[in-house]
Design a protein that fits this description.
Blueprint lengths: L3 E7 L1 H4 L8 H16 L2 E7 L2 H9 L7 H26 L3 E5 L10 H15 L2 E5 L15 H11 L4 E6 L19 E2 L23 H13 L4 E5 L5 H6 L6 E3 L2
Parallel strand pairs: 1-2, 1-5, 2-4, 3-4, 5-7, 6-8
Antiparallel strand pairs: 7-8
The structure holds adenosine-5'-diphosphate and ligand VHF.
Catalytic activity: L-glutamate + ATP = L-glutamyl 5-phosphate + ADP
Pfam families: AA_kinase (PF00696)
Enzyme class: transferase
Length: 256
């Protein structure tokens, strides 16, 4: 058995370049760190966005007019493409991974929730890394998570994880517009602190992810209130996961 469980979420922005192409070395570095944790008996549940952007890589500009249907189609095409990357990279490290695609409804008390716990526990006990993403192909309106930061938080709570690491494309939560020189990363946040004033409005294109720093912070605070220390970190920074696990001062730590 393992001695610690971490939930790591990787956002679309982390794994893509400015042309919205998936950058395989980024996924490689992520898996390499998960493999290093595995050697230390620390298991990971990986929550990975990126299916929509991976679908766009394949299909290009779709003819479908309806935005929801377009997202379903992009994701249905992109999810296996993304999993092929992960499957191959985990295999290079002599590891196994598996796909879990929940919808928000699956977290309601009942048989789906129990089944999900059962499956995740089974995978972890076999040393297999579960890779979760929202089931975008069927998950529309009522059954949707607000974004994968919510999915990662719900999984961390469901599986009583020891840590939640939300990886994005910026060094953490800044105390002002991150573009401005005078803004600094806030290194420690309490679960109840109101920091909305620091959040800048985003302008994301289709497929570039749904979250935003506001949602990331509020979900990290929810997990922290539930005694799961949470970290908002730059996923493009070398060894960032190992640094968090080793207690180094990186990104924004959200905890009691
Ligand atoms: N105060 C802030 N500190 C840091 N980033 C912020 C802040 N306000 C807005 N942002 C924006 O939030 C973005 C990260 O959120 P998001 O794009 O949703 O990431 P992801 O796709 O990884 O989930 C940053 O790139 C930054 O532009
Ligand atoms: N489920 C979607 C991503 C949704 C999402 O939350 O994206 P992000 O804000 O980049 O983490 C996908 O796989 O493309």
């Amino acid at each position: 058995m393992y001695k610690e469980l971490v939930v790591i979420k990787v956002g679309t922005n982390v794994m893509t370049n400015k042309d919205n192409r998936i950058v395989r070395p980024v996924l490689n570095s992520l898996v390499q760190q998960i493999a290093e944790l595995y050697e230390r008996d620390i298991m990971t549940i990986l929550v990975s966005s990126g299916s929509v952007i991976a679908g766009k890589e394949v299909l290009g500009k779709a003819k479908i007019k309806d935005k929801t249907q377009r997202r379903q189609v992009y994701s249905a095409i992109g999810q296996p493409r993304m999993m092929r990357h992960y499957y191959n990279i985990f295999n290079d490290y002599g590891m196994k991974c598996a796909q879990v695609l929940p919808t928000k409804r699956d977290f309601n008390p009942g048989v789906h929730r129990d089944n999900m716990i059962n499956c995740l526990e089974g995978l972890l006990s076999e040393g297999v890394i579960p890779i979760a993403n929202e089931d975008d192909a069927v998950s529309v309106s009522m059954s949707m998570f607000s974004d994968n930061d919510e999915l990662a938080t719900l999984l961390a709570q469901l599986m009583k994880a020891d840590k939640l690491i939300l990886m994005t494309d910026i060094d953490g939560l800044y105390d002002g517009n991150p573009e401005k020189k005078e803004s600094k990363v806030i290194d420690k946040v309490e679960p109840k602190e109101d920091l909305d004033k620091y959040i800048e409005e985003g302008n994301k294109e289709e497929g570039e992810g749904r979250g935003g720093m506001g949602s990331k912070l509020s979900y990290a605070q929810k997990a922290a209130a539930d005694n799961i220390p949470s970290y908002i970190v730059n996923g493009k920074r070398e060894n960032v996961i190992l640094d968090v696990v080793e207690g180094k001062n990186v990104g924004t730590k959200v905890s009691k």
